[in-house]
Amino acid sequence: MRAVSNAIAIPVIASSSTGKESHFADVFTKTNVKAALAAGVFHRKEVEIDAIKKHMKDSDIPVRRAH
User: Fold this and answer.
1) Which residues are CB-contacts of 50 (< 8 A; sequence separation ≥ 6)?
2) Which of 13, 15, 21, 56 is a Cys-bridge partner for 63, taking CB atoms 3.0 to 4.6 Å apart?
3) CA-CA distance, 6 to 19, in Å (whole number)?
């Protein structure tokens, strides 16, 4: 991810499988991507969205609030 985002001028969005809350924080702390997304993990109810958002907030990573 870091190599790709360093090689291009447009924002990179990470899209991949995740299995736990820390994977979302890792993508921001270990790379310089601008956004991350996931869908299947939520549809399969493997991880709750609120758990991800809490972990991100606790890790001092900005998270968009639900409207």
Assistant:
1) none
2) 56
3) 26
Handedness of CA 32, 34, 67, 18 (dihedral sign): negative
If you ran DSSP here, which 8-state letter would residue 12 be given? -
Cβ atoms of 56 and 24 within 8 Å: the answer is: yes
What 8-state DSSP symbol labels residue 42? H
- The one-digit pLDDT tens for each residue of the chain (67 residues) are 778 888 888 888 888 767 788 888 888 888 888 888 888 888 888 888 889 889 999 999 988 876 6
